[in-house]
Amino acid sequence: MFKFIRTRIEQGMQTIAFPGGERELPERYRGRPLLECSNCGTARCPQAREDSPTALIRDGANGRAELDLGACLFAPEEAVGSASCGVRFTGDYRMATTSADALRTTTGEVQLAKALDERTKRLFGRSLRLRSVVAGSCNGCEGELVALGNVVFDLARFGVEFVASPRHADGIVLTGIVNRNMRQPLEATYEAVPDPRLVIAVGACAASGGPFRDSPEVMGIPDSIPVDLWIPGCPPHPLTILDGLLRLLGRMHERAASKD
After folding, report:
1. How many Å apart are CA 129 and CA 146, to the nearest integer?
2. What pLDDT, in 10s, does the model give residues 130-144?
3. Distance from the CA of 78 to the CA of which of 14, 187, 236, 242 falls in 20 to 30 A?
C-alpha cells in the first residue's frame, strides 16, 4: 500500500490541463492540413491535385482546388507539392466543425464548431451521456475514444460519459462507414435515444467513407440522422475530439476563464 502511494506521489499529476495549459504533441504528429499555392496564384494547384493519393484535394468553386478535411487520412503521402505550392500538415489539432460543408476549405482554415443553442446547452452542458455506434470501422477511432477515458485526458471531468444503452443516452457517437449491415441498427439506436438528442460523427470513415469511399458497401450516414458535430481524422487525436465536444457544449471559454 505504501509503495503504491509513494509511486503515485512520484508520478505527480498526469491529467493534462484543458483547454488551458501546454500541449506536447509528438514531432511526427500531423494536424490540420494547409493548401498553399503562392506559385499558382488562384490556388488551382493542378500538380498537387494530380499527385494526391487520396480524395483530400478536390475541385471547388470556379475551378479552385480545395481541401476536404473529412476525406483526409492524415497520411504522410498526402503532403504533396513543394513548400510554396502544395499541401503540408500543421500541428493544430483543432478541426471539429458543426457542418460537413465547413470541412471543405480552399486553404485549410476551418470554421470551428459552434456552441449549441442556449436551451440545448442548458440540458447537456453539465452532463452528457453518449452511446457509441460502430457502423463498420477498423477500430482506430474507437481506440481514441477509449483513450479519452484514461488519466491523461479524463473526459469524465467534463461531465461526459459513455453509456451502454441508447435509452440512457443524450446522443450517439458514430464511427465507421455505415455499411449495409449496420445502417438499420444505427437508425434503430438513433430512434431509441430520447429527444432532444445529439449526433457526433467521428473519423474520416463517418465523414466521407475514408479509405473505403469507393466500396459499394459504403452507405454513409442516412439523411434522416442529422449530425451536430463532425470530427475529422484517421483516426482523430483525443485532443481533436475533446476540443470539438467542449466547443459544441459551449465550455471552451468557461474552462479557459477558470484557469486565469
Report:
1. 15
2. 999 999 999 999 999
3. 242
CB 34 within 8 A of CB 87: yes
CB 173 within 8 A of CB 130: yes
Given a contact cutoff of 8 angstroms between Cβ atoms, the answer to whether 204 and 73 are in contact is yes
Q: What angle do the packed helices 140-147 and 238-248 form, to 10 degrees?
A: 70
Instruction: Decide: 246 and 100 in contact? Cβ < 8 Å.
Output: no
What is the pTM (predicted TM-score) of this model? 0.89
Q: pLDDT tens digit string along 194-211?
A: 999 999 999 999 999 999
By the 8 A CB rule, do 59 and 121 touch? no
Q: Can you point out the beta strands (E) in the chain?
A: 33-37, 57-59, 65-68, 85-89, 104-105, 128-134, 160-162, 171-175, 198-202, 229-231
Residues 168, 147: Cα–Cα separation, whole Å? 22
Residue 69's closest CA among 87, 43, 84, 82? 87
